[in-house]
Amino acid sequence: MPELRFIIADRLPERELDYLKQNIRPESDLKLVVTGKENASLMTELSLFPPEECVLISTDGHIISNMDKKGMAALGFIGTDKSEDVSDDGAEKRPCSMTQNETADYGMQDAVMLVEGLEEVDETFLIRAFKRKHGMPWTIITTERCIVREITLDDLDGLFALYAGEGMTEYLDPLYEYEKEKEYQRSYINYMYRLYGYGMWVVIEKATGKLIGRVGIENREACDGEPELGYMIDVSYQRKGYATEVCLAVIGYAWNFLEFDKLNCLIQKGNKASECLAEKLGFMFREEMDLDGKCMKRYTISKSGA
Length: 306
Prior knowledge:
The protein is an alpha/beta fold. The protein has two domains: 6-133, Rossmann fold (3-Layer(aba) Sandwich); 139-302, Gcn5-related N-acetyltransferase (GNAT) (Aminopeptidase, 3-Layer(aba) Sandwich), CATH 3.40.630. Helices cover 29% and strands 25% of the residues. The chain has eight helices and 13 strands. The protein has a five-stranded parallel β-sheet with strand order 2-1-3-4-5, sandwiched between helices. β6 and β7 form a beta hairpin. The protein is elongated.
């Protein structure tokens, strides 16, 4: 499995380079390499580094495109005016991903992500960019008993076992047949995770490594495009606090990392267990709605508590 060892900074502004130096801990196993050469000499220098062990940060789309073809993860630095680094409430913006249409620089579309600034590009951010390039799942959060991470195709058998539990699909749509579900999950991994950076994840029990549930956040049209929290826990793990444990952690992740200020839950009427959990988590009932012929109850929770 590829392991990140080198962060290569290519001709970055001095201020941004200072941020990067501050954000990579001295005791870290990551080594920061700073370049200042023109393209021909730079390509020679970059060829000395194993591409499967590096993340390149560059302002040059041609360099990014060339190194992407060699298997190196690359971040495209597109910069911004300092005035644009501050949101309306005065808070600094997080590094943001953008689509290839938002930059005219040839080759930037091959970057794993595009960033406007490096002030908050830390080791976690760099490792996630590296994992995205190499098809490795992100670990989203860890709790006392569980790991919440992105799904992989290796999880399919565990996923089918989860959905086969008694009553698991009483209020949830079942999976497709195996090969169709495999293609669906492949597309989900390649597009949903890459585009949004969030979605439905799997819950793994630390002690056993077993897939015991799903939890995550998706945007729902029925919620006016707002994010919805979804969750399910294996029948044999219910009433043991697992759902509360991982859902509270995901809500915290939504507030503090994804910077959402509101979450929804859509629960089919009659699903008392799910309703009780939502209320325990702090969600408030808002309305009933018809969704594909089913009566759904909409609950919401706000970061402000309002």
